[in-house]
Amino acid sequence: MRNILIIGAGRSATSLIMYLLEKSGAEDFRLTIGDISKKNAEKITQGHPNATGIELDVFNEDQRKKAIQGADLVISMLPARFHIEAARDCIAFNKHLVTASYVSKEMQALDEEARKKGLVFMNEIGVDPGIDHMSAMQVIDRIRDKGGKMLLFESFTGGLIAPESDNNLWHYKFTWNPRNVVLAGQGGAAEFIQEGTYKYIPYHRLFRRTEFLDIDGFGRFEAYANRNSLKYRSVYGLEDVLTLYRGTMRRVGFSKAWNMFVQLGMTDDSYTIPNSEELSYRQYVNLFLPYSPTDSIELKTRHALKIDQDDLMWYKLLELDIFSAEKMIGLKDATPAKALQKILMDKWTLKQDEKDMIVMYHKFGYELDGKKKQIDSNMVSIGEDQTYTAMAKTVGLPVAMAALRILNKEITTPGVQIPITKEVYEPILKELTTFDIVFHEYQTEYLGYNPDNVSA
Amino acid sequence: MRNILIIGAGRSATSLIMYLLEKSGAEDFRLTIGDISKKNAEKITQGHPNATGIELDVFNEDQRKKAIQGADLVISMLPARFHIEAARDCIAFNKHLVTASYVSKEMQALDEEARKKGLVFMNEIGVDPGIDHMSAMQVIDRIRDKGGKMLLFESFTGGLIAPESDNNLWHYKFTWNPRNVVLAGQGGAAEFIQEGTYKYIPYHRLFRRTEFLDIDGFGRFEAYANRNSLKYRSVYGLEDVLTLYRGTMRRVGFSKAWNMFVQLGMTDDSYTIPNSEELSYRQYVNLFLPYSPTDSIELKTRHALKIDQDDLMWYKLLELDIFSAEKMIGLKDATPAKALQKILMDKWTLKQDEKDMIVMYHKFGYELDGKKKQIDSNMVSIGEDQTYTAMAKTVGLPVAMAALRILNKEITTPGVQIPITKEVYEPILKELTTFDIVFHEYQTEYLGYNPDNVSA
Question: What residues in B contact A261, CB-CB < 8 Å?
Fold first, then answer.
């Protein structure tokens, strides 16, 4: 009997496993779920007859090799840096591999061997990267098939709180790794192209150079630039495109408010604060403000950030209890970023009955038959609960669908792949619609980078 | 006959060599000047009978060992990272060593061997570090000798243009390594202590959190925080001090104007600009501004930086020709910082008849006999010309004076040293006054961090 091995049974694997368990009978395969905790692995099988939970430490060579040898296809849901251990064994034992992570240099280096052996190593098939690749390439290929020439590609994704659970001033809660949210945008200037000109935004201005996006039925969002838009030129074959921009979506007002932390230096992760465990939130804030023998931390904050009396920004700070003299950071050797994460997690952690939401928005500008045109396309997916979150669905379902199609030899192109070919995106995008992961398209006139139609 | 070897005959060595040549007759020693260019080394001896210029590549082991073996004391004026080659040979051949650079880990590791062999390895004896150490420790030791307790130490240094050569809106020209000026403050938050509280300033706010300093006869200066104030706690024995702050001095208005470059991202040195050699200054500026089909780069700049119609900041930009469509960056693979340096060097390079200036300002707060008091101390040194600059004098003279005293066995404490003991600073500070390098002291009431005497 055919066997799929899933390594890593964490939060992002719930929908993946549910999907595969449901298919296992009709499609005639077994599922082995390996996790560092055997208990966790067994629990997640829910006693399903086609599933087995096993202990699997990816750094335990014997355990790993044995589990991989017994599989026909391996899905690694581990953090990206751990895939390579499994990937090398997949080459050695002739197994297909699926991951939702960006292709690392080490992974790319296995391309030739995988090709020779006829193995499909499918990566970047979660949500971002994943659904973004597939939904973008589907439209880009369609435009090209008609003879159109791509002028502009912009793409935005956000992991947010569902409207029904949106009950704070920031319109934001942590629906994924909080640390990544606190550090977002760091590590160098954001670079992209607008109308043929390179553009760079330094980190300390990133959250003030946002643009707005509207989605029917969901209202207005904003987006700030991702660091690495330019790498999509070669991936999507957009070498001659005039505008290439990728960004992260938030609810309106989030970025400007987040910029308060950036400006004060609270997102810095490069140094530790002495005696951080003994600091109150209030003392933590004061680290970033000038000394005064007389003035309150509140007024110093208002002054440093130019927050007027009637500015909602102020209440966004108050909502976090960030001026509390009682609440303690309580973390030893905390960086400013880690301490900020602690403060935010008090308020931004999802409650049991709250739901998350994934939003995605693409803009495709092109020229066809001498006319400039534009297609906007967007998708909203809302989580069912805290187990089958929108994040788990949009990451796990494409992984599962790709895995099953590879197992069934419907996806066969060997080598280190990402889902940008019709063979992959057509069937998977179609099946995703049955899970309410649907892109809505709007044909508009070409707006380019002058959407308000400003004239000189 | 005794012999001093100087390695590196660059711009900072002129006053050092002049001083030693003048002393060589009466003090009965010879000077060997080693430089990568023999011609340069010979030229700088000026045909003096006690001096020899030789070719010396510090990475040519034979050349280096031979030169060091023939000396009694070695002065390394090379960039800091190259000292260690000479230092290891000084240990091997029992030679004293003098440098103007910060003690590196590798240098510190030689301390025990130097001690055992009775060798003086004197470092940090230029201007900053150097004269700052000596002039600060002289006052701190005097306060302590009287039974005073240090409460506050602030120290500021600046390399500036002399008032008579100060003829641009920035009141600034490059009097030293331009690259270090462009990158100043980068690499992490500035940290210091004010009245017992740790304080941190992120790079993007560093140039807006300045304070003012007045020097009799020279008017008002401003200072922004250095990154590493806290390391002076242990160096100066100030573990219990309430305020510890070191900064860099500029003329008033410089920092706020410099912050325009920081805000736009022009000081970033972490990525290269595609086709940078083909960009005009104007196109370079536009890299950091949003795309517009209609608006001028000038108005986009005013808007991005909130520069009002009547703001002098604007004319500081115009003075640099930064909006020129004709002037070209002309550097391949330039980072934003390297391109900015190019633009600034057009305007900020010293002309033949222009003079530089070194300014230093210390504040010492202390408690004595139950009363809080403060001493402010400052020094201004103006260059003679482009050869005997203030920088060359203030870096080279202390080095030369220390070297001669080590040669004469007046400074004898062995090991890796910095000039913070009376044995070193008393005679050298005294002799420096004969070169018009004089500290003026002012006793004031304790101002601490409430200099305007604000009450709640």
Answer: none
